[in-house]
Every structure is written in C-alpha cells, then in structure tokens.
Amino acid sequence: MGVDGPLEEPGLPEEPLGRRVSCGEERATVRYVGPVPPTAGLWLGVEWDNPERGKHDGSHEGVVYFTCRHPKGGSFVRPAKVSFGVDFLTAVRRLYHIDTEEVLSEEISISSKTLEWGKIKERSFESLPSMLLSRCEVNGAGESGDIQRNTPNVRWLDLSRTLLSCWEDVAAVTQQLQQLEGLQLSYNRLCLTSDPSALRQAFSSLKVLALIGCDLTWAQVLELSQMWPQLEDLCVEENDITELQRPEGVLQSLKSLSLSNNPLKEDSMLSIAALPRLEQLNVSNTGLSVIRFDDVPPGSQTAMFPALKILNLDNNNITEWSVVDELSKLKSLVQLSCRSNRLVSSDGNVKTANQLLIAKLGQLVVLNSCEVHAEDRRGAELDYIKMFGEEWLKAGGRSQVSTQFTCQHPRYLSLIDKYGAPEEGELKKQQPFALKNQLIKIMFVFPDDADRKPIEKKLPASMVVQKVKGLLYRLLKVPAADLKLTYTSPKMLGTEFEIDSDLKTLQFYSIEDGDQMLVRWS
Fold this sequence. Notes:
The chain has 522 residues and is an alpha/beta fold. The longest helix has 14 residues, at 374-387.
C-alpha cells in the first residue's frame, strides 16, 4: 500500500483537497482525504511533485482512491506527517527574524536577471524592496490587507517551491504589492484559474516572471498571460511545452523569452515569430534541428522576429549549414550562441566552424559569448572566399553563378564585392579553413651539432619563417640572421628542400605534419 507515518489525526484546514503540502523537503498535492481500509483513522492521498518519492498510482487493493500522472507518483500519508504551510507574513517574520542583516543583503535571481540590493538603512519590513521566500511554506496571503500594510515596497519577490495551490492564491499576495516588477514562481504546481482576465489587476506592474518547472503547456501559458499585461521577460524553462501557438492579443510587450529544456516540435518556433518586441530568445536544449523562414529567398531579410537581437541555440541537433543561412535572414540578430550542436566544417575543427558562422552571419557582434572583432570578421570572410572559391568558379563565377551555389552561399557574392575575387593560385589547393588554428608537428634536427638532441614542436601552419627563427634563437641562443633552414619530408626521402625566405609561411613551403626541419648556423 505504501503507508507513511503514525495514526495521529490533527485538525485539517477547510477544503484540504487540492491543497499543497510538504513532507520534509518534498512537495505534494492532496488528492484524497478519508479512510483506507483495513487500517483505522484518516489518510491523505498525495501526488508528489517528484514521482520517485511515490509508491503507487493512488490505488489500494483494487480500489482507486485518486489518480496520478505517474504510475508511482502517489502515497497515503497521515495528516500529522505533512505541513499545510503558513500565510505570507508569518513566513516573512520567521525567515527575516533569523538573520535580518544577512537576508537584506542577499541577491535575488529571477529569470535571467540577478539583482543585488545593498544594505538597507531602515531595518523594517516596510523598507524591503525584495523578498526571498524560496522553499518557505507560504500557502496564501493571510488576512486581507496585511501584506500591503507591512511590506508595501516589495518590487522583487521569490515564491519558488512554496505551498501556494492556485493562481488565486498568488493574486491575493501580488495585488497587495502595487510596485511588484519581478516574480519567481518556479517549481510550484498552481491550479489554473477559470477567468485569468479577472486577476489582471493583481499583476498590473509585473515585468519579469519565472515559471521554471511548473508542468505547464504553451496553451496554458497563453491562457494565463492574460493576467500579465506589461510582461517583458518570461522564463518557462523545464515545462511540458511541445508545440507553440501564436500569441493572439497577449505577450505583445515581451522582450525576452526562455523556452530552454522543453521538447519543442520542429518549426514550432515560427509560431512566435510575429512577437513585435521580442529581442532575446532562448531555445537551447529543445531538440531543434530545423529553422526555415520561407517568406523570403536566400540572402533577403525576413519579416519574422523583427526585433530579435539575441538567440541561444545551444545543445540542439543542428547539423545543416542551411540553418545558419536561414538565420542570416534575421535583420536584427547580433548575438548568437550555438554551442554543442553538430555543425562541423570539412576539417572537423570547432574553431573553423565558428569562423564559418562569422562569415555567414554578417551582422554578428557576439558569438558564443565572445566578441567578434573586426580582424576576426575580416579573416573569417577572406578564408570563406578562398575555401569555396573553386566551387564558385565551377558554378559559373561572377558572370553566371548558379542558383544552387547562391542558395548555399547567399553572402558569397557580397563578399566578392567587398574583398575581390580569389586569385587563381589560392584555388588550386583548397586549404584548411582555419589555417591559423592548424598545428603541424615538426622535428628540429641539428646535423652540424651531433651532441644536440632533436626538438619536437607543434607550430601553426600560418607561422612565417621569421618567427620560426625567433623561436630557434630562444632555444639555441644563435642569432636569427645566422640560421639556415631546410626541411625533409617522409614522402620524398633523400630530398632536402631549401627555405629561402623569412617572410613566407610554413604552409607556403608545403611543410606538413611529421616533416623534419634541419637547422644549421655559421
């Protein structure tokens, strides 16, 4: 059966069904109150937030007492084993009485915003601008008007992991906090209200809201959003959001939205593409693999996501570079995070893939939290021209380049206009894209000094001979001007190639991984 606790039967609150309770660190919702034969006394049937805490599905000996979303999400517990919580002000007095100094100087983090309130001169509840009640057993507002009289200046409130049961309970608290701007309600299980618009006044000043891990669907979020007319920042990570629908008449002031860690269906993202003020979107770890803006051809600007500046695509299943070409259609995108996807370049180098991203996205200012400097962009774009120059010529070159090539490389022609066409010599041998990041292993040997042991070094293929000589000067204490270099390759045994220019690169001399460089000096 799964029975916890003794047989005591303390007094229960009125209408305990649907109420939130705590049992140690665990949270649950009461689904049944009554006897469970053959045992004597009163039992509570609860559905745990953490289904691993449960023992059954609400049934006992063939009798269904309540139902759970998870087959082992339920238990029967004695009333004495659970807490139904306390009202808002009781929780505040308990917490803030313990160490007022410490609590007043804490940070509060709501969604992506972290606010630190300095020490407050006047030590009173009335002066508190923030309340940190996460994991406190708040179950409601208490007596009417108490919150407004005692804590009227709260602007940021954390009520995550509490015992609030429904949105009416939340509204009873927030309607007394007329300056409230930020609210953290993560990891609660709140019953939906039948008339969200009736609670609109209770959230009239709210701008930032976090609802992480609240078992919500997107349809429910849209229904609830009637309550938040001024909302600018919404975090609904770790919910049950699979398919997005278009917000009609709601969320129109939204600037930041995080949908991270939700199993989104493909193309679902386009349903929110018309949000007029959305500047920041996080769809990391959502299984995303395809993005298409079919309203315009390659190289054009889409009307979708008109204000989107910052996009997070980390930890998804993006494998096709065509997705990046689609992103280039976003007219306002300047910051992209695209880590831990499966976008790879021909050489398999992560840095090469990043350079491709820079080259394909002409407006990008920040990539994967790193600023894109002017020299980074220039290098990436020039290498991009060289990398696909042969393909460009085969596709017809400047005069009659094929549509297929233009679709695959929508920025190529504009880069040709910017830097000029690649020279023929650069196209004969397609070089690794991130040449400056390619390291080749070279063994330095000293044929005129039998006592000196060979030295192995890994050097960039783009390093000029002058710098190689500088490195040797530090190792040998022989002036660079006195050094004479040649090299041999295992591919052409017995042949010694002269290195006669200090201004050429190792790659220019076709020095490859595993070659030997012979060092002599006069």
